[in-house]
Structure formats: structure tokens, C-alpha cells
Design a protein that fits this description.
Blueprint: E1 2-7, E2 25-29, H1 41-48, E3 66-70, H2 72-81, E4 88-92, H3 103-111, H4 124-138, H5 144-156, H6 159-170, E5 180-186, E6 201-203, H7 210-213, H8 215-225
Parallel strand pairs: 1-2, 1-3, 3-4, 4-5, 5-6
Helix pairs in contact: 1-2, 4-5
Amino acid sequence: MKQVYCISGLGADERIFSRLKVPGVEFVYLKWFVPEKGESIGAYANRMSMQVREPRNPAGPHGNPVFLGVSFGGIMAIELAKLYPAARVVLVSSVKSRKELPAWMKWVGALGLYRLVPSRPGSVTRSSAWLHEIGSDFLGAESEEEKRLRDEYVRKVDPAYLYWAVKQIVQWKNYWRPQALHHIHGSKDKTFPIRGITATHVISGGGHFMVMNRAEEMSRILASIL
């Protein structure tokens, strides 16, 4: 059975992949953890790669894992692929380079406005309120179950992780792309609008939460790719 390593979006967990059904595929979920102080996205990816079952050795990474990343998880999938030259990457509702980031995100990074994101352990309530304001509109949750899941993520997100993740997104400088890359995107994604994206597969009417609310179509595309 083929293993696919799944990386959820900012603050989310493996439940966003729960509706995907692809015969012959085992979804293995890579967990997020609190970043170390001043940790770069590359260093974080190196630590996250310790969850990958593919072989590595001190002389250099090898193996050919498949990484499936949603939103910020897609950015992390690109960073993980740098450690595995033969890796295949499937991006969902994400971006593959700085070029595809919306202009407003680039400005937030350039002006350092990400510093306005609450980051201290005691700022959980403010972090939740901040994330709920942007998440309600941008994530595109449709059903009551999806909205409950979204709200749970918002309530439980770690402030230090949230601050770090937002900073990594808006300051991401990547222009490298893996050799084997597939990009699935929704035509109505508000977080990363389709007009700035070059996708290999476009889901008509899909929003940023389409890994759940367009799971059947997503599964068909994944089956054709894998």
C-alpha cells in the first residue's frame, strides 16, 4: 500500500483529511509542534522529517516519499521535499513559491506587520479572536461540522506557533520547486486567489476548505495522480 504523508494547514490537524478515500493509499499524518525560538522554516522541516518513515542517512537524505500539503502544509511540503530530492509533492489550496503569495501577504512580510499577531502564552484569547476574524471568511467552511472544526482549531491554536507560522508564510522566499509537483486549487479560494496560481488541477467552486467539502472530487484527482 502506498503511503502518503499529509500535512494539514495552519493550526489544523489530520481531521481535515478524514473524507479522502483513495484505494491502495495509506494516509500518514505529520504532526505540527511548537517551534523553537528563532527557528527557520528549513530547520523546522528538518525536525518534522523525523516523522517520515523513508530512510535517511548522515551522508544525505534519500527515498521517494509523497507529501500532500494543504495551505501552510503545502509550504511545509515544499520545504520537506528539499530534504528528499526524489519526493513527489501534491499541493492543495496552497502556493509553491513566493511569486504565488497574494500581494497583501508580501506587504505584511515586508513591513513586519506579522508582529501584530499575538504570540505570548497568555494571549490565547486574543489569538483566537484574531484568527477567527480572518478564518471565518477565508477558510470557506460550509457545513456545520466544518464550521465546528474550524472554530475548534481557532480556540486551540498555540499563540507561539501561530505567530511563527504567519511569519513564515508572509516572509517565505522560496522559488525552488520539486521535480514531481502537482497543484490542486479551488476557483473560489479566498486565501490564495486562483488568479495568482498556476495549478495542474482546478476544482470549480472550490474554496480553501475544499479538502473536506470537495473530498469526493479531491479523491478522484488524487487517485489519478497517485
